[in-house]
Specification:
It is a single chain. The protein is α/β, with parallel strands linked by helices. It has 14 helices and 12 strands. A 7-stranded parallel beta sheet has the order 3-2-1-4-5-6-10, with helices on both faces. The chain has a 3-stranded mixed beta sheet with strand order 7-9-11. Strands 8-12 form a two-stranded parallel ribbon. The longest helix has 19 residues. The N and C termini lie far apart (68 Å).
Length: 337
């Protein structure tokens, strides 16, 4: 019998068309992994992304996931309902499909975690083992996801969870940066900021999150059966550092900052699922938060971290807000304006 470690490693990615799923899939592919991707429109996906082995199927269908996972070493569970629609009825069944496939094949599960499963009582310093008393429906579902994964680990399934702050980066969708702070598709005339000065906020640059996950996967044989890690990411200590980074990226030191229209979100939330979810997450902008990463550093030695100016400029270019040739304004240009 061929030793599992001697053959080419393989991964099944659920959510390969999304921001984090795509980033992890491409990163693993560059490291020599064979990447399978499950999608309901596999044929169409294969026309635009030929790096992956696309498999037709639905993450809600346990049989489809099980068939696609045959022989893989890892399942990346990065699939979410688009636009937060039907979140409560779809998320857990999709995870159950992944867990069943992992149990049948012996694959490890990698989950991009969030901080939504923590409530205000865990702030301001959020550690991996902080009590999970979520304040929102989405948070309660996230808590249940982790509970089921913990249960699966006790049955022999390897699980890696990486929690991080608010995502931003090229290709990242459904996030505060692209849906709250800036308007994609045109040069910036203003920044809309959901928080206020003096309140710390956690950000996570998508390529750094993907790289962190991949490095952990490469060490999975050395990790606990249920391994959970927090990323420090980019900590905006006073609620102004991200604003200043955007100003430097676009070369406008006096770019206007407007208050995020929470009143409109509240008014429209009964009719727009996305707005309802955004309103529920408002506490993350009212409460200071930081995520220590000592546990991660003990394993990796360092946390991958792109300089914030480079990360923001790359993100804005990807969103169509910045010309590809536009230079980043030096930090002192803001500091001395």
């Amino acid at each position: 019998m061929t030793d599992r470690r001697e053959r080419t490693r393989s991964v099944l990615v659920l959510g390969a068309t999304g921001g984090i799923g795509s980033a992890v899939a491409h990163g693993l592919s560059r490291r020599g992994w064979q990447v399978r991707a499950l999608n309901r429109n596999a044929g169409e996906c294969a026309q635009t992304e030929r790096t992956f082995d696309w498999r037709q199927g639905d993450a809600m269908n346990a049989g489809d996931v099980r068939a696609a996972a045959e022989g893989v070493d890892l399942i990346v569970h990065a699939v979410n309902p688009p636009g937060y629609r039907n979140w409560g009825t779809l998320v857990l069944p999709m995870l159950d499909s992944t867990i069943a496939a992992a149990k049948a094949t012996g694959a490890c599960i990698l989950l991009p975690g969030t901080i939504y499963n923590f409530g205000r009582d865990a702030f301001p310093v959020l550690t991996e083992d902080a009590p999970q008393n979520p304040d929102t429906d989405k948070g309660r579902i996230r808590k249940e996801m982790e509970r089921r994964l913990k249960q699966a680990s006790e049955a022999g399934v390897g699980v890696i969870i990486v929690r991080a702050g608010d995502f931003f980066g090229p290709g990242a969708a459904n996030n505060w940066f692209s849906q709250g702070l800036v308007k994609p598709g045109k040069p910036l005339t203003a920044i809309s900021y959901p928080g206020r000065a003096g309140i710390a906020h956690q950000w996570a640059y998508l390529p750094d999150v993907a790289e962190t996950m991949i490095r952990l996967v490469e060490r999975k044989d050395q990790l606990p059966r249920f391994a959970v890690y927090h990323m420090r990411g980019f900590l905006d200590r006073n609620g102004t550092a991200m604003i200043e980074a955007i100003r430097r990226a676009v070369g406008k030191p006096d770019l206007q900052v407007r208050a995020f229209p929470w009143w409109l979100i509240t008014l429209a939330s009964p009719f727009v699922p996305l707005f309802r979810e955004l309103r529920e997450m408002r506490y993350l902008w009212r409460e200071p938060l930081r995520m220590p990463n000592e546990r991660l550093l003990a394993v990796l030695g360092e946390e991958p971290q792109t300089p914030i100016d480079e990360a923001v400029a790359t993100t804005l270019r990807g969103l169509g807000c910045l010309d590809s040739q536009q230079a980043i304004m030096p930090p002192q240009a803001i500091a001395t304006r």
